Amino acid sequence: MVPRDRPFPANRTPSSPLRWLRKNLFDGWFNSLLTLVCLWLLIQGVIRFAGWIFTQAQWTVVTSNLRLFFVGRYPQDQVWRLWIVLAIVLAWVGYGIWQAVGKSSKQERRERGSGGVEEWRSEGSKLPQRLLLILFPVSLIGCLWLIGGGVGLSRVPTSLWGGLMLTLLVSIASIVLAFPLGVLLALGRQSTLPVLKGFCTTYIELIRGLPLIGILFMAQVMLPLVLPGQPNIDRIVRAIAGLVLFNAAYLAENVRGGLQAIPRGQTEAAKALGLNTSLILSFIVLPQALRIAVPAIVGQFISLFKDTSLLSLFALVELTGIARSVLAQPQFLGRYAEVYLFIGLLYWIFCYTMSTVSKRLEHPDRSR
Fold it and tell me: Can you tell me the distance from the alpha carbon of 144 to that of 169, in angstroms, rounded to the nearest whole number?
């Protein structure tokens, strides 16, 4: 047995592609035959798929309905408002990437031992961080105002919202609202107060025992019936409420897993230093727990993004609903493969982007 403090012996044989192929794919006659068969099937599949894409597929069903896929039936003369919203979203994404790259560069300079530029960057990044809590809600309200209109802009009813815009709007709103609710439920389940712990545990176990389609059905159909006075709650708001209530229960369990991974010694040491419970949770326990639970949390976000396709069952024309409406056009009957391949590509782009961002958050020092 090799002692842990002694480095493992280095591989003296240099690795090369040919050596890797011999070791992993052509190790023996059976593995060689299996590799050749799989390679032939893969090549045949790629050739046939590429031939269908470039010779047989009729992409006019996509190119002729690009505006429907992206913004639904949003008025064409008001699309400029969505371009401003897109610019705001890209600005926030760029700010997030700049922060991630800056954190990685700071970590690298810290390892090198330089400090002058690091101190300048840390001083310069204080101002955006102080304004972050103000700018984010202002930007969110501004985006909703631009999309929906009112107060100087012509109002666009939610029945005209659709396509990728509605998918992203419902996903972002559900993620923003479900995440803090999930954290509070996780903290409540870890609480020593019996009533609070019992309420959070009952809620989490009850929601996790129900299918999402049932919760969406209750939010869309049953909620207006049971509320006093039968208020006219918009269908999009009801859909967001159903997604938030469902995903908050799963996020709570993900965060609870991270909380249980924190050693109790850290909490006891913080109490010995005189820190109260809120400071311990804010600066010691929660940052570590959330970092540990990042893969599970982002996995839940990706699942939420894909679950928005269920909203088409309730007459909400998000991306899947728009695909169904496009396929109902007489000139595009039967073009299922092109349409669903296109929206599948859009789903994959956003899901892969979220997965990549989670890797950077989980291991910022490996991003460069």
Answer: 9
